[in-house]
Write a structure and sequence with these properties.
This protein is of the alpha/beta class. The protein is built from five helices and eleven strands; from the N terminus they run E-E-E-H-E-H-H-E-E-E-E-E-E-H-E-H. The longest helix is centred in the last third of the chain and has 15 residues.
Amino acid sequence: MIRNLAQGVQAFTSNVFLVEGETTALVDTGANFDIVPKIREVTDSLDTVYLTHTHPDHIGNVDAVRDAFDVETWGYDTGYNAVDNRIEDRERVQIGDDVYQAVHTPGHKNDHLCFYSQGSGICFAGDLVFANGAFGRTDLAEGDRERLVESIDTLREVVGDDLSEIHVGHGPSIVTRPQDDLELAAKAARMSQ
C-alpha cells in the first residue's frame, strides 16, 4: 500500500510516500511539518528511507525520521548529510513488496533519482515530471533543461508501455493514463527550451 503522508499539509513540503509490504519504506521525508506522528499512525517501524533528491523540501525531515526510527537513508550522492548510502544508476532496491530500478535523472538537480518497478508498473518520479504534463523546474542551482529533457526520455524508455502509476514530488499522483502525462511532459519541456 502506498500512502502520501503529506496529503493535506499546508506547509511547503514535498509529498512523502509510505510504502508498506515486505519492507516498509519512505520515499522522501518532506519538510516543515512533523512527519513522525504521521508515520506512527500507520507503523511503528521503518526499514529504509529513499530520497529522490536532496532539495530541502524533500529532506527537511530526514534527521527527525532517522532519530525516531533508527533508520538509514539511501540516495544518489553521499556528499550530502541527508544521504547515508549511495544508490547507483540502475541499481535495484526493495520498496514495499516490489523491486524498483533506480534511474539517475538529472536536470532538476544533479542527484535526482526516479524509482520504477516493472512488476507493478509504479514509478516514484520525484520532481522530474508532474500531473498534466508539468515538469521539474530548471532555474535552481544544478538545473539544466537539456539534461531534464534527456532524463524524461530516459524514464520513458525505462517504463515502456508498462506504466500504471506515477507518484510525484508535488501535487496529485497520476493514476489514470500516466503514459499520457509523461509524453506531455516530454513535449512541454522541449518546447520551453
